[in-house]
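I'll show an entry:

:::
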Amino acid sequence: MSAEDREHLLVHFEMTTQMVAEQVRGLSLAQLEYKPSPDRWSIRQVVSHLAVAEPDYWRDLQKSLKASPDMKDKKSAATDADILWYGVDRVVHTKTGGGHEKVDTYKDLGEALGKFQALRATMIEYIKSTNDDMRAHSFGDREVIDCWQWMLEISTHAERHIQQIREIKNDPNFPRK
């Protein structure tokens, strides 16, 4: 991994890890459980989703990195900027699948946040120390991207949910306490 790629991933992962914790710090139980509508998630459920989904994303990345490098003859279906935009663009809301919709896995915010932060520490240490050429390995079956981009997408996925938490907190009926 180039020094620039390493730095970009590291900064993004550290930023989103910190932002998740900052967004939930000091919230009351009523605030954590508030849902803007019956079909929307609460803040606790958003963090639970991150704690459920990211281990799967991490395992999938590790599996792809064990395969032989194969990006030499492939072109990524997305640019790095496209991956970054995914985390910011909340215009299109997508439904979660693949078991990641189990947002009530963690009923306790502290447990969910702890699981999220522990895995993030593992991923951040990997980013700091790996010699893997993440750009040389493909990720995905349909729209192929490289593994570096998938690692970035793990972080931008959290950024997307940080935006979701902010939307919940900005709802006019969000509890004041």
Q: What stands out?
A: The two ends are 46 Å apart (CA to CA). The first helix runs from residue 3 to 24.
